Every structure is written in C-alpha cells, then in structure tokens.
Amino acid sequence: MSQVLILPVILPAVLAGAIILFAQGTLNAQRAISVLGTLALLALAITLAQTPTQGYFLGNWPAPFGIALVLDRLSALMLLLTASLALIVLIHSIATGWDTKGRHFHALYLFQLMGLNGAFLTGDAFNLFVFFEVLLIASYGLMVHGGGQARIRAGVQYVAFNLLGSTLFLFALATIYSTTGTLNMADLALKLPQIPAGDTSLIRTAAVLLMLVFAIKAALVPLQFWLPGTYANAPGPVAALFAVMTKVGAYALIRFGTLVFPADLPATGALIASLLYPAALATIAVGAFGTLATRSLPRQIAFAAIGSMGTLLLSVAAFTPLATAAALYYLIHSTLATAALFLIADLARTRRDGLTAALFMASAIAMAGMPPLSGFVGKLLILDALSGDWLGWSVILLASLLTMIGFARTGSELFWKAPAPEAATESKAAILLCLAALAALTIAAGPIGQALSQTAQALHHPAAYIAATQLGATP
C-alpha cells in the first residue's frame, strides 16, 4: 500500500505534462484531463484518509539518506482538503470560462496540486523547500493568468516576498544540516534532543529562520504585505485555490512545532510558541481592521483571510492537543469559507441577483464566525482551548464583530445600492458546494471533532510518524 503514497505527487505532474505535450491546442481535452485527474486525486485522498501512518522511500533508499514520503492523519487531512477545494475551483473555472483566458491554465493548475500534495507528504525538510518552489512557480503562473498590469505588479511582489522566504529557508536548512547531519524530519526529532550544548544557539537560530519562512507562507504579521494585493488581483478561481496556500504555512508550523521543535526540546523550549502568540494576535487585528476599512470586496476578503490565519495560528501557538484539534477544525472551515467568498466576488462582477446576495450573506456569516455555520463552531472550540486567555478571547471576539460589520456594509453597497451589471448566465454550483461543505462541517462537528482530536494526539505524540520513517532503515 505504501507505493500509493507517491501517486498524489506523480499523477498531477504526469497529467500536466500530457496537457503540454498532447492537448495544448484542445481546450476540451485539457478540461477532461483536469477533471478526471482531480476526481482521481479526490478518490485517492479519501482512500489515504483511511490508511494508517506509513512511509514510502523512493528508490528504496533508507532514511535519512533517501527521499521519504510519510502519510499520517494530518497529511491525509490536508490531501483531502486540497483535492476537495481543487474540484470546486475547477468546476467554477470551467463554468465561468476563466480557463479560456490563458493557454496554460490547466497545466499550471495540476502543477500547483503536485506542489501542494508534495509539501503535505514529504518527510524531509529539504524536499519541503523543493515543493515550496514548485508551488511558487505554478502559483505565479496562475496569479498572472489573463494578464493585466495590476496583476503583473502584484505577482512580482508575491514572488519577491516568497524568494526572500526561500533564501531564509536555505540558510535554516544549511544551519540544521551542519549541526545534525540530517534534514529528515523524523530523524531530526530523534537527534535534536541529543545535540551538544554548544550547538544550541545554532538550532535556535535555525528555528527562528524557519518560523519566518512559514510566517511568510501563512501571511503572519509583519510578513503579510504580499497577500492583499496578490489575492485581490488574482483571477477569482485562482484566489479561491490560494485559500489553501496559506494553510501550507500553518501546516509547516504545526508539523515542525510538534515534531522537530516541540516545547520540551531543551535547545528551543517554547521559542516558537512565544514568538507565534503575539504575531497571531497582531494578525487578527490587522485582518479585522483591514476588513472594516476596505471597500473593494476582493481586497476585503483578502484581509479577512489574514484575520482567519491569525485566529488559526493563535490556537496553534498553544501547542496542546485540545488547541491543535480546534485549529485543525478551523483550518478546514476557513479554507472553504475564504474560497466561497472569492468565488462569489468573481460572480458578482457580472451578476448580482438575489441568490448571489444570499450566498454572499451566508459566506460572510461563516467567515466572521457568527452562528449558525462552522465558523461559529470553530471559534467556540478555539475559545474553549484558550480558556483563561482573556487577551486572546477579547481579540477574537472583537475581530469577529469588526469583520461582520465590514462585510455587512460592503454587501449592502454591492447588492442594494450599486447598479447591477448586465446579467450573465453563470453557474453557482461551485459556491453551493462550498456552502454545503460548511454546512456538513457544522452538522457533523461532533464526529469530525473526535477525529481531529485523534489527529492532534498523534501529532503531539509522534512515535508512529517516527516509526514509519524508521521502517526504511534497511533497504
């Protein structure tokens, strides 16, 4: 079964190559390949979600020398979320004709899925860097899809920030490798507790550098400047797909914070948590005030996405199983809610009927964390996990109020006061799928919460993850 772990990486790469080589001039063929490939990835993700923790070693090279892929409950969750969102985005892209505005949309879309899946599955820090670069290249191509000066300018800013992150990532990896002789994450979990006292400062420096890298990916204050312009200027379906991009940063912080640099590691202690907590509070505040102050709907959604990342990472910063489980629930919710809003913003360019307004209202309620949708449940879980943290409670609740006020004002201006554009027949199926998923997340909050609690427990007690990597010790 372990050989199946390579498929989420290989399948989209092969299909993207097939589009470039054999279907470049045939849009229907490109669409068919993308749809069938995404459905296959979704079926594969559902299968892997029911699979126990295991590793796969390319070329049968033993860890820590070979390339290792590791499937655990967290990586399976991220694969399933990515495949589900990718299918929703693809449906909208085809229905609205966004995929006709550039020659390479479907190939770039599949390369993006390759990078995302690889980042979630890799068990090696250097290969995480490699997949980050795959993501950067594919996402820049999608970002500038359709052209336009504003889009190109925002794309350049996006690449500049991420190249800075890539440079810091290499410095951090070089520091870790020179100190430990390995970049395999499970191997690091075994070796870092045994490093000499004289190397402690190097490991602390590497931990801070890695946190900066992941903070850029997660749009954490003060490294969030790239996100509003990038998301607001990207094509609607691309911005919706990018909703999972910031979650790559959150995933990396959770993975490294529980496996490589846990709170009981003598070299770093609670370093990551102590830095992450104030940054998350500031991120919530920037997102909320940005949402309140901005009048452009796409830019407003971008600031709301920043605020949601702050809420998510505030829960992550506690680094307890209860808080991690709440963060994972909120991660699923915020990805789907952000995507739904970006798809609605794209639809509102050409159609502002009553149904579109109703969909906007439901999505805004979900994003702000108001009842009865999953945002409310997610924030309740986070507040429960942060019991006693009155500062965190106050910031989250005030931010929810400001976000709802901002969306209410924009919604009234957009759907009530502004003249409606010329009507267009465009499918709302993708948006309805997002909202249906949010409703299911709300209704099934109990069993989903139990499953995420088990995921959090496994993250904070990573013996199974380490053992899965050690299985490759003998070729």
Name the overall outline: globular
What order do the SSEs take from the amino end to the carboxyl end, as H and E?
Answer: HHEEHHHHHHHHHHHHHHHHHH
Mean pLDDT: 92
- Spatial separation of the terminal alpha carbons: 17 Å
Strand share of the residues? under 5%
Class from helix and strand fractions: mainly alpha
Q: Low-confidence spans: pLDDT under 50, at least 5 residues?
A: none
The helix content is over 70%
Strand order of the largest sheet: 1-2
**Count of runs of 4 or more consecutive helical residues:** 20
Indicate the radius of gyration in whole angstroms: 21 Å
Number of strands: 2
Q: Biggest sheet, in brief?
A: 2 strands, antiparallel
Count structural domains: 1
Verbal overview:
The longest helix has 32 residues, at 149-180. A two-stranded antiparallel ribbon has the order 1-2. It has helices spanning 7-22, 27-48, 73-96, 105-121, 125-143, 149-180, 185-191, 200-217, 226-233, 236-241, 245-260, 271-293, 297-318, 321-347, 354-368, 374-385, 390-417, 429-443, 445-460, 463-470, and strands at 54-57, 68-71. The model has no long low-confidence stretch (mean pLDDT 92). The protein starts with 6 loop residues before the first helix and ends in a 5-residue tail after the last helix. It contains 20 helices and two strands. 74% of the residues lie in helices and 2% in strands. With 475 residues, it is mainly alpha-helical. The protein has one domain (2-469).
